[in-house]
Input
Amino acid sequence: MSSFILGTLTVLFLFLILLVFMRKLSLGYIYLTLKETGQECDVFRFFSNSLNSKEKERRNQALLLFPLLYGVPKEEEGADFDKIKDAIRRMHFLLYFLLFLVVLVGLMSKPLE
Output
C-alpha cells in the first residue's frame, strides 16, 4: 500500500481514538452526576466551560473513574448505572480495537527486509 493511504488511515484511527475516549470520559461524568445528584445530565456537559467548582471536581474524578486496563465492575446499582457501565465497556473494547488497528497499520507501513 502507498504511504499516503497508510498515513491517512493512521490519522483517521487516531482521530477515532480521540472521539471514543472523549465519549468514555463524558459517560464517566454522567455516571458520577447520576450517582451524586440522582439526575442524568447532558452528554456535552462534560465539555462545558461554565461549570461550578463541584462540577469541575466531578469532571476531574471522571478522568480517572474507569481506567482502560481494568475491568468495569459489575454491581447491582440499578438499570441506569448498568446501561452506562455497559456503554463504557463497549468504549473500552472499541479503544482496544482501534489501538490494534494503529499498530497493524504501522506494521504494514514498514518495508519487509
Q: What stands out?
A: The helical segments are 3-37, 53-63, 79-109.
